[in-house]
Amino acid sequence: MSHMLGADFVVDFKNADPVEEIMRITDGRGVDVAIEALGTHTTFEAALGVLRPGGTLSSLGVYSTNLRIPLAAFAAGLGDHKIVTALCPGGRERMRRLMDVIASGRIDLTPLVTHRYKLNDIESAHELFSNQRDRVLKIAITP
């Protein structure tokens, strides 16, 4: 009998290496769908690295430079992986549920926002994110 995980499983990247944790949880099989939202080359490569053959990577991240597809993580094109830059299958409903969870206060996303800028300083924020300085993950822009 195969072991199935729910579609809404989140790995805390601050407490565990996400690739190792996903492979541990799936007994080394990997996942059919991975959602990558941080928008860094490292998280993009990690998400590709946990896909099973035929898996789909949904990349919601915003990249400030040209993104290169890592050959090894992409299984040299032989893994039959699919990369989409929009919501993955069923993603719209999962995103709606995630937004409901956030609105209800049941999840704290503040650790993902590492920097905050006023709208007037958006050029400085863009420069910081583009150059991936100061351990930036996500930037919140406020009026």
From TrEMBL:
Keywords: Metal-binding, Zinc. The keyword Zinc applies. InterPro entries: NAD(P)-bd_dom_sf. One of its GO terms (molecular function) is metal ion binding. Its cofactor is Zn(2+). Pfam families: ADH_zinc_N_2. The keyword Metal-binding applies. Belongs to the zinc-containing alcohol dehydrogenase family. This is Threonine dehydrogenase-like Zn-dependent dehydrogenase. It comes from Prosthecomicrobium pneumaticum.
